[in-house]
Here is the input.
Amino acid sequence: MKKVFSLYFFLLSVTFFGQNQPWRSFYSYNDVVDLAQSPSRVFSAGSTALFEKNLGTNELKTITSVDGVKVETITAIMHSPTFNRTVIGNQNGLIIIINGDGSILNRIGIVQESTIAATKKRVNNIYEYNGKAYIGCDFGISVLDLATLEFNDTYYLGPNGSEISVLQTAILNGTIYAACGNNGIRLAALSNPNLNDFSNWSLGIGGNWSGVVAFAGSLFAASDNGLYRFTDQQQTFVMMPSAIVDVSEANGFLVVTSAKRVTVYNEQLVQTAQINVIPLPEAEDAIFSCATVVAQTLFVGTVDNGTFSAGFNSLNFENITPNGPSRSNIFSIKKATGALWAVYGDYSSVYNPYPLEYYGVSKFTDKGWSTIPNDKLFNAASISDIVVSPTNENLVYVSSFHEGLIKIENDEPIAQYTYQPVIQNGPESLVDPEVPSAKSVRINSLAFDKTGNLWMTNARIEKAIKSLKAGGGWSSYNVKDVLTEPFENDYGKMAIDKNGTKWIPSTYGGVIAFNESGNPQFKVIGEGDKGNLPTSNTKCVAIDNNNRLWIGTAKGLRVLQGIDRFNTEINLTTNAIIILEDGLAQELMYEQSIIDIAVDGGNNKWIGTGGAGAFLVSPDGQQTLFHFTKENSPLPSNTINDIEIDNATGEVFFATDKGMVSYRGTSTEASDDLSKVYVFPNPVRPTFEGNVNISGLLDKANVKITDIEGNLVYETTTEGGTVLWDTRAFGKYKVASGVYMIFISSEDGTKTKVKKVMIIR
Here is the structure.
């Protein structure tokens, strides 16, 4: 079994980057960490993805994990026009090379160096000289041959060969210089064949230096006090005092960047351009991170606002940042019919929202991304959940895990509900006996019931379950009788079933089942003999198409066989799913931290984990259909924050801590009739290796496929709106070329449809 899946994932990883790409990426390019250039192109790197702009063709090209560039966290970038290669450095020491033909290579020599601590492998700068890339890291310098792409040597520059951070390197008149922070600028003769011997390095300039550049026959060094020029041991102050964050040579210009200023000098050291602000609404308060020059055009990267360009002659700025969400670290998403919503304010695994984060709310439609800025959202901190009204897509609520609930109508925030003593049963501040004046209104877990009431949790108080009625007014419900520590409990995202029962995961109380019309109103699924959960720390719940409750915990998975048991049984007991692996009985998702569970139109379960990627399991959990990880798919991280499914198309969205991607899945929601049955691809050509997708089906419909003579080759009953056929006769052998008939009938036989598909071998 394991060998079959290994081969499958190998083949899958190859098809990911083919032309019929089933994946899409949704990255932010706003957090610019570095810029690089060639004579005609500029390269802009965010922490998780990058893009390039060709000034000759004006083409803008994004480069993400879907293209095969699987970064860790980007910290530096360099482009070599000589070799037509782009070199990307990462926080963990990973080096990624993008060749001119589009092929991608990883170099893991630094990552695998066992003598260097993982925290010391960060790549700070990449400098090209005579066919070699000098890679400044937190331990010293690694040298990469740009022709062979092999590491040549490693230099440790500290006293007695100790590891010291190298922030930038430069070579001038046969001497290599290294800016080493508070260890000064260290130097050595480049011709020395033993630069890996620390004794051949010496302290050239004392002090604290963040950068060093060779330009116009002089050495320039950057510090917190400004930029200095060194000629014949003479130190000359160049710029007025300002902490330099980036200094570089670019196409014959010296480019100096501080947080609020970019200055450009030509080779005669005449100031050619200077900016202190980008006069565009989206960048007026931007903090600069880096800059470069290409073809008399200045490019400026910012910390949070993207990349901007302006010609030297006009300085009329243009935002060249590709359209995307505000951040790559998306915490929660919600798919509506016409839009995908995303929020960024998070909390830790123990529901700690500090340090507070003040981000906006983003919306993705067929027109691209737009964002409601935080200042329009009442400056609310840690916006962590979102819900769209099932009857009105223009009505949206978002929750702040610090400052209550916000109502958005027609993309305009119109009301905030937070702690107000005069509002009975409204949002309340957490109870902190040690700090009675503290006000942290922790609203989470938004869900509408079928009557239009909005339900939510209000953490760290007794009346932890609240609802905002469809017609206005609040109701609150006390959990003190079912939770031993109501003031310490936090709550994950709830699910509301067909009976109106709210199933709410909690940190210490297991799953709380609540129905305001029930008698009793509350029941609790706990660990051990109180419900068979592996731990009381539950993370998520989902109700499938067979009315089973799937429960994700910090230590595994459980299933409650039937949500109606809330009405009939005193004790609600869950079961583990036992599968056979290599002939041995195993518990599905044993000890895994499960962050989210989503049910697709075929009743399959998408399971997102806190470190093992995403799984797709069959309706009963007995088969693992897919296991997507960063290693075998375009997932940018194995830490899944949220999963959402477009049931109309089958597209599955994965929000992670390092970016969002989607997989165009195969299971769609069942249709009401057979008027929109669609078969794809059709015809099936010889090069196609996938499955035939038959969508637009009724649930529990019978599907039969026969050859033109009426011989049956495949038959199944649908679960949801899609069926996949592997073009084999009952899974045994591939059918021959020809036309095949697809006969579809509803469960009661009153609705029928006939389609054809052509197979070409």
